[in-house]
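User: Teach me something about this protein's shape.
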Amino acid sequence: MNVSIWILGFALSLLLPTGVFAQAKIPLIEATNEKAFIRDGDQVNLAWKLDPAAKPDVYYVNIPTKKSKVKITTDQGSLTFYTEPGKTYPFLVRLNKKDTCFVEIAAKLPPELPQISMHSAESDTVSFPFELRGSKLYFQGRINKKNVNVQFDLGAGTSVVNRNFSEKLGLKFSHHTIVSNTSGINKERTSIGNILNIGNAEWVGVPLTEVGNMRSDEDLIIGNGFFRDRVIEIDYDTKQLVVYNNLPDKIKQYRKLPVFYEQNRPKFKARLTHNGKRYNFWFLFDTGRDGTMLLGEDFTGIDDHWRALQPLTVINGKKIVRLDADIAGFSFKDLVTNAADPAKPNGRPSLFGNQILSHFNVILDNINGHIYLKLNQRVNEPFFDYNSYLKEIEKSKVNK
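Assistant: First, the predicted structure itself:
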C-alpha cells in the first residue's frame, strides 16, 4: 500500500519574533496572488502557497547537508539563495501590497522528524530483521511498550496507525492531519510524542496519524522520515535492515544513482521504453507498494506522453500499457502497468513498487542524496508482466 500524506501548508519552525527579521535588511519581493514556486537544485520544483499567518513559513532544503541554489518565484518577481548547510535565509513577500509573508529557507532537517537512538555494541550501526509478506517489508516492534507489526514503506510521507488498532494501543489524540490516500482526502486524528522501538533502535517524539485503509495485519507504517539523518541498507538476501551513521565500504559493489525527496520519500531516475520510444523520468522508490509500478499524471501530463502511450486496453479511464524498464543498468521486460489520465488528476506520483525494487539490495544515503543498488538473490522472482496480463485476461473470459 502506498500511503501518501499531505499536511496543509508546509512544516513550521518555532515562531520567531518579528524583531528577528528587522535586525538586518531582509530581501523583499511582491506578489498579487498566493501562488508561488520554489526551485531547489536541479530537480525539485514545487508549488508554494504564501501564508501571511505563518511567522515564519519555512521551506527546508531538499538535501540540507549539501550546498544548493534555491529560487522562489511569484507572479511579480523572484529571489535566489545559495544555501550552505546549517544556515537559514529569511525573506519577505508583500502580498497584494498589504499583507507581509515571513518566509525562511532552512538548510537543515525539519525539527519534527522522529529522532533515533541506536543502542548497539557497534557504535555507528544497528540492524534488525524483517520479513517479506508478498513483497512488503515488516518489522516486529513496540510502540509505547506495546507489541506492533510495523510495515516499512519508503513511499509513505508520514507514520500512520491502523484505526482498528489505535484503541488497543491506548493512543492519545491531540492533533489532526489532512490525509490523502485510497480513502480520499480526510481530516484524521494524530497522536504525538510516542516512543517506537525496533530491535536496538529507539525513536522518541513519534507522531502517528490514524487511517482506515490499512490491512488487518498492519498496525503501523513508518517511512524514510525516521532515517533522514542516516544511511540505511535493505538486504533482501539476509532479510536485515541496517542503519549506519556513515556509508559502508560495500558500496563499491553497488550502482550509484542520485535521489531527491518529496516529503522525505526518495525519488530516483529510471528509463522506460514503450512503442520504440525511450523516456527518462524520476520515480518514487515505493517499497510499500506490492506491485510493479504505475505512471501518474506527473509523467502522462508532460510533453506528448499521454497521447503517445499505446494501450492494451483502457480500464476506468486509465490506459493499461506494456513497456520495458531499465533500473541501474538492469532491464525488466514486458511490464504491464496503468497510466493515469492527466485530464483526471488524482495526485498519485509515478512510482516503482516492490515487486521490482526487491530484486535489488539497497543502500540509501539520506545524508548525501544517493541510492546504491545491486541485484540480489531474488533476481529471478516473478513480477506482473505481459504473460501474466494475458493469463488474467483469459481468466476473466472464463468467469464471464
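Now, about its shape. The radius of gyration is 22 Å. The longest strand covers residues 184-198. If you'd like, I can walk through any region in more detail.
User: That's plenty for now, thanks!
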